[in-house]
Amino acid sequence: MSFNIERLFDQYGYEVLFLGLLLEFIALPFPGETTMLYAGYLSYAGILNGWKAFAWAFAGTTIGMTITYFVGLKAGMPFLLKFGKWLLITPSKLEKTQKWYRKYGNALVFIGYFIPGVRHLTGYFAGIIGSPFRTFAAYAYGGALFWCALFVSLGHVFGPQWERVLHAIEHHSWKLAIAAAVVALAVWGVRWAVLSARKKRQPARSE
Q1: What is the 8-class DSSP label of residue 49?
Q2: Which end of the chain is more exposed for a tag (fewer CB within 10 A), N or C?
Q3: What's the confidence (pLDDT) of residue 203?
Q4: Confidence check: pLDDT of 174 > 70
């Protein structure tokens, strides 16, 4: 098992989810999806509480994303170009994420959780382009909720078969990205409909 996840859980429990995912989103190497699937399996086996595992994973993910947003906002692209190599951020990853951001905008923060090599950089780029924090948080925290719930739940549902699920996901990650894009569009559509309905209910101002 990569990174010996089993031993880490034996020694540290839920904290593995929190610290590991936080470090992953700063762009340090950590198998976040593998860890969440295994945590889900441990909840299936009755070793961990599934809700607690999800909560720790969600906390680590959102805090990690928030840190990268503010680093991008304050330090900008020069920081990534100068220090990116220490965080294993290669020029090819930067170029790839830039292309995706030009295509999807802030929605990439939500979709990016399911795109290997991209999710680690979306928080930085949201800060670099000066995306308002409320907009960033809506996409980042919503995406984290969906991502963490999905992987912990898959590990719980499939139990001992969790590694097969991981291999299947690794070969079909683009399908998950498409599904995430559909969810993001649906959320945006509902939000737009609610705002439009509120505006229609507001009485017109008398001139």
Answers
A1: -
A2: C
A3: 57
A4: no
What's the confidence (pLDDT) of residue 206? 46
Q: How far apart are CA 149 and CA 207, in angstroms?
A: 50
Residue 18 banded pLDDT, cuts 50, 70, 90: very high
Neighbour count for residue 135 (Cβ, 10 Å):
13
Using the structure block, give the residue that is written with the tokens 């925290």: 141
CA distance 111 to 143: 7
The span from the CA of 115 to the CA of 121, in Å, is 11
With beta carbons less than 8 A apart as the criterion, state whether 49 and 164 touch: no
- Residue 97 CA to residue 77 CA, distance in Å, equals 12
Helix (H) and strand (E) counts in the chain: 10, 0
Helix 15-25 / helix 32-44 crossing angle, nearest 10 deg: 160
pLDDT at 5 over 60: yes
Nearest CA to 148 among 2, 7, 14, 17?
A: 17
Burial 29-66 (b: 16+ CB within 10 A, else e): ebbbbbbbbbbbbbbbeeebebeebbbbbbbbbbbbbb
d(CA 31, CA 92): 20
Which two tokens mark 49? 């509480």
Return the structure tokens found at 89.
């951020």
Closest CA to 166 of 6, 37, 43: 37
